[in-house]
Fold this sequence. Notes:
Elements: H1 15-36, H2 42-61, H3 66-95, H4 110-132, H5 140-169, E1 181-182, H6 187-192, H7 199-210, H8 214-223, H9 229-249, E2 255-256, H10 257-285
Parallel strand pairs: 1-2
Amino acid sequence: MQNNLYRADRDSFSFSDIVFAVIFAVGYFLCALPSFRNIGNIVLQVFLSLFLSAVLTVGGLLLKNGLKFTGIALSIFTVFETLLGIYVEIKAQLASETPFKGWIYVFYYDKPMTVGIIWGAAFFVVTFLRLFLPLNLTDKTIKNDYILFFKGCVPGFLFFYAACFFYGFLFVRLGAATTGLNLIPFDTLAEYFSPAMTTYEGIIYIIGNLICIMPIGLFLGLYRPETKKSVFIVLPFILSILAEGSQFLFHIGDCDIDDVILNVIGFYIGASMRFLCDIIRKKITGGKEETIFGGI
């Protein structure tokens, strides 16, 4: 069998393809293990998981139907990681003296972040290749299979993202009883990078807040590119202020203007990706192909 990057047999998705999807899902899970074992080392935690995921994804694209089964593999991976996290957290809560009355440090934000990085690395590797592929090498099969990849990997990520949102904004805050309020811009950011804090804590704080609502901006741009610009401008402020305000109102966290600033920037980064990709694709193809997301 000849291995051709981005080539696939669109008319079949055989038992072997399902097997490959499971194998690659296991592979993505193994990509996370080195990072999980190096919590606290931001270089290894972030770049090692990103690198391993990218290499595994490129390897999948060299196989027949690679675009299809890598998309499904990513959904299997993210759903499995989510269910595993739920199981471990519930088990730890039930074993505690006061179940579900406080945050048990089974997971901090760094492990879910690693899972997100692995999914994101695979997603952006495939999108990058599709984006910069010359027009004379882009046939109908490639276009269709990229959409199949997209539709295969997104449901699992959305399940993972919804679970993380519930975990991070409600579950881990049960019994927190904190009512901190900071309305001075960049005050908390300065505190996280003071000598009293570690660089690791500061980076996790920034990355966590940047990616908090970034997926909402990304998928709004992908699924609803016709949305009015005014909505894109106002929506992140509404979402972030509601989240921060609810923490203060219900005594389940600190209300911080710096969180709002980072959340909004992250949303804009996510929302701009669709438009940036369209501009690049138009440039590469001389306007003959305006987007790689048609049919989503």
